[in-house]
Design a protein that fits this description.
This protein is mostly helical. It contains 9 helices and 5 strands; from the N terminus they run H-H-H-H-H-H-E-E-E-H-E-H-E-H. The strands form 2 sheets. A 3-stranded antiparallel beta sheet has the order 1-2-3, with helices on one face. Strand 1 and strand 2 form a beta hairpin. Helix 4 runs antiparallel to helix 5 and helix 6 packs across helix 7.
Length: about 350
């Protein structure tokens, strides 16, 4: 086509084509270089991907799971394990500090040698000894050390100062021994108290065990149950146990909670008796007067369940209680009788 053009036009056309060919050549060279770079990146990515696959396979093998989808749950369990393990380490370190260098195995062996039946008396003796003898002695010695330090500061470093320094060192050594014994006594009291709680729980009266379940339901899990304990005079008492382990005596409970505890004991006695004897009517009169709406509803539900195997008669002059009873599940076992005034 160019050969048919005049010479000057053909030259211009050739120049245009030459410029375009030079640009295309430069672009080709650049794309060739980029293609080589991309090929290297692809190979490197394939190597990384293959290595990652190998790591994932090894990780799945170590985690003993079939697919990566199972790993999050396993990781969560491992994190929980680390948390619990750290708590164990913290508790062991705390026990080591309290025990004054006594190994944990030795502490456990000492606790195992204690006769469970003697635990309450031993705890009472140790606590009394700590309160009446060790604590006053530590306070007295601390005060004495403070006085000696004041005197020492006022002296010029003569013979009297040296004597007081020696006395002070002896007093400090005595304080350290008493403090070590105090720590052991406190730790022993804690271990023995736990042993007592475990013993009481394992040998708990069946009626009290049933009452604990009723009490938990009646209080809507505000209390975890009931347990026997001893007061400061060594007399047995009944206490309510919170979910966090806090214990409340009957005197510290509200009037509504006390009513729920006494009702739980009555219900437990009746339930225990039903296992061996004939049913007998259970008659109650306005026991829900100190209950709020939610606990009244829970109490009515418990009475309705008990009514399936034993006659329950509840007297009330509150219309609210009647309306709550009409909305209970298992309505077929509930009969409402209204008495004329």
């Amino acid at each position: 086509e160019i050969s048919a053009l005049p010479l000057d036009q053909a030259i211009l056309q050739l120049r245009v084509l030459l410029g375009q060919a030079q640009k295309d050549g430069a672009l080709y060279d650049e794309l060739t270089i980029n293609m080589g770079t991309l090929q290297e990146e692809i190979q490197a990515s394939e190597s990384i991907f293959q290595f990652a696959n190998e790591q994932m396979t090894e990780l799945l093998r170590l985690a003993n799971c079939a697919s990566p989808a199972d790993l999050p749950a396993i990781i969560d369990r491992f994190i929980e394990y680390q948390h619990l393990r750290q708590k164990i380490v913290d508790h062991e370190e705390n026990l080591a500090k309290i025990g004054g260098g006594v190994p944990l195995a030795a502490l456990a062996a000492q606790a195992a040698e204690v006769n469970i039946d003697e635990v309450p008396v031993l705890i009472e003796t140790l606590l009394r000894d700590t309160k009446e003898r060790l604590n006053p002695e530590i306070n007295r010695l601390s005060q004495q050390v403070g006085e000696e330090n004041i005197r020492l500061a006022a002296m010029d470093g003569g013979a009297r100062a040296a004597e007081l320094t020696e006395v002070m060192e002896q007093e400090l050594a005595l304080i350290r021994r008493l403090a070590g014994r105090y720590a052991l006594v406190k730790l022993a009291a804690r271990v023995l108290q736990q042993a007592v709680d475990r013993y009481r729980e394992e040998h708990q009266d069946p009626v009290l065990k049933i009452a604990a379940g009723y009490f938990q339901k009646l209080t809507l899990d505000s209390f975890a149950g009931l347990r026997t304990d001893v007061d400061d005079a060594g007399q047995p008492v009944l206490v309510g146990v919170r979910e966090n382990g806090t214990r409340l005596t009957v005197e510290k409970m509200s009037s509504g909670t006390r009513d729920q505890m006494f009702l739980a004991l009555r219900l437990a006695t009746l339930s225990w008796r039903l296992q061996t004897d004939e049913p007998m009517p259970f008659i109650i009169d306005d026991i829900l007067i100190n209950f709020d709406d939610v606990r009244s509803r829970a109490t009515l539900q418990i009475l309705a369940e008990l009514g399936e195997k034993n006659q329950v008669i509840l007297f009330t002059h509150h219309r609210r209680i009647v309306d709550e009873a009409k909305m209970l599940k298992g309505q077929e076992v509930i009969q409402i009788h209204e008495l004329s005034p």
